[in-house]
Amino acid sequence: MSDEKKELADRIYSQLENVIDPELGVDIVNLGLIYEVNLDEENNVHVKMTLTAMGCPLAGTIVSDIKNTLSELQEIGEIGEDIDVEIVWSPPWDKSMMSRYAKIALGVHES
Q1: What are the structural domains of the chain?
Q2: Any idea where the MIP18 family-like domain is (predicted)?
């Protein structure tokens, strides 16, 4: 990955920290919901992520928030057209995927 692409990928992760899980009140990056971010040659973005639970009623809201927040980056094109969000269930999410910040914010104690 070129330095330019790496820098853009870092900025994408920073932008994704602005997307808050409405139920938990913590951003999706620190919750460990983002599994992968890929950029193609035209800077189209593919986000592979999961949710804390199958059947999450807020999945549509979170996907929409991701597309809205990433469309603010000038290098990425029109909303929804150049941003693909794929929700996967493998590996399943668990609390160990959260950052230290998220664990503290949610009062999760490591055992």
Answers
A1: 3-92 (3.30.300.130)
A2: 10-77
